[in-house]
Specification:
The chain crosses the membrane at residues 220-242. Residues 103-124 form the C2H2-type domain. By secondary structure, the protein is mainly alpha-helical. Helix content is 60%, strand content 4%. The protein contains ten helices and three strands. Residues 22-41 have low confidence and may be disordered.
Amino acid sequence: MKKTRAVTSIIAFLVLLFLQGTRANEGSDGSRTIIQEEEHAHEVHCSRERSRAAWKIIQEYLMPFVEREHYQIPSKCRLHPDNDIFRDQEEHKIHVDINEWQCGYCKKSFRAEKFLDQHFDSRHYNLLNINGSKCIADLCGALHCDHVMNTKSHKTKCNLAAVARNRHLCESLADSCFLIHQGPSASRLHELFLHQFCDAHTCSGKQKPFSRGGKKQTSVLYLAISILTLMLLPIFYVIVFLHQREMRMRTQKLRRVSPVGRKTKPS
């Protein structure tokens, strides 16, 4: 009887261990599935860095001309702000200081912009505009992002197929964003877009992108010279004032001394 009870206890213990191991495996498989689903849900096939470069180009080399013409870019145009998946997040970045960036949603602070980007990806993913085709980085070829980001090697041989593809994309943007039949403003902007972006898509290298210029930015040197001028201008006026006062005092002294020192001729 004792041997039978011992064998039964051992079998029961082994069965219990097997059941616990099965439940643990099921739990780990379930948690692994949830993690994989979360990682897949947060996966965005769009470069934030290149999207930022594309938007910077639009703001500096296109929008000044659009605003001058008082033209409204249609929402179907891929250059419209609503078609940038990261636009709302980018507008909620607060650059407090050189080494301080703040999240406009939750007010958390970060030492660098890249850490704020990671925060957006992990904490505010639900605020991304992911409906439809919203990756403005896909337009980088047409907008010359590599030229701005300095990522393209000058020694690389020109790829005729890539140049033709980028030029076609560029011209399609001009046609869809600036409809010529809408009036003279749209027609002028259509022509400008071709010269500003599309004409540079050649292998000759003669035509440079952004040939029409862009937004005028105040340089650091200009600011320094302006501040220095404002500081030195009062000092200059003080020096001029003191010099003129000294000259007047000398003139008055000479007038006082001249009658006394004058000798009268004998008659």
